[in-house]
């Protein structure tokens, strides 16, 4: 059976669909591996196995030391911005008072000139003469004639003729923000979580790392499971046990402490800037082949290695 003419015809001035596919033209998809997904027992800030974990109300887990340092750095930044904003407001107030005083002095001089014919003498700093007698372009204090000449000369390279745009800072927010969820976060809303470690002398785990299990069904926690933490006591269960027992009995299965439905917090897995999460864990690579330069007169490639959520 003869082959298709489109696959064998290679003397055309453009690429065929089959030739573009062989060159890697189009979007290539590949599922992310295990190394590209953040483990459930890793801190959202340092991406290492958490130590003394604390969880927010949105289910993001952090190391105690990491989240404390993050909140402390945010408070220092807020304090610095508030000081800068206060200084700016004070400067604007002083400038406004100075303008009002200068305007009042000019009105008095104009009134005095109209009634007595005297020449007004302004107290403006820009009209004061230099005691050394030098009024060059780089001088801080210039006369009115030099000021007018500089305005018409448009010499932008001179320091005295360079326009200045005052930088205005808005009033900063005094709320600390969760580094992962970008919502308001306070220290008192964080609660510690406790995971049940797998301890069995007869059957040791394959890896040296500590593994965790559900206190109820004894299933080993992995990234494939959805985990639920109780904000009142901090114990962590799998989603199935949470829906089947905790949501119905309103009691923790590990410590028999009462809990309400609002106390059940679903833990987030993955989702950092260096890890993927969700159902569609794909990395895409798009290549566009132009006309010329080996493959065309310009070859551009655009890569997007972020996972599609």
Automatic annotation (TrEMBL):
Coiled coil: 75-106
Annotated SUPFAM superfamilies: RING/U-box (SSF57850)
Keywords attached to this entry: Coiled coil, Metal-binding, Nucleus, Zinc, Zinc-finger
Main location group: nucleus
One Gene Ontology term of the molecular function aspect: ubiquitin protein ligase activity
Claim: Zinc-finger is one of the keywords in the record: yes
Cross-referenced Pfam families: Rtf2 (PF04641), zf-NOSIP (PF15906)
Gene Ontology terms: cellular component: nucleus
InterPro entries: NOSIP, Znf-NOSIP, Znf_RING, Znf_RING/FYVE/PHD
Subcellular location: Nucleus
RING-type domain: residues covered: 214-256
Stated family: Belongs to the NOSIP family.
PANTHER family: ENOS INTERACTING PROTEIN, NITRIC OXIDE SYNTHASE-INTERACTING PROTEIN
The protein, known as: E3 ubiquitin-protein ligase CSU1-like
Gene behind the chain: LOC120112417
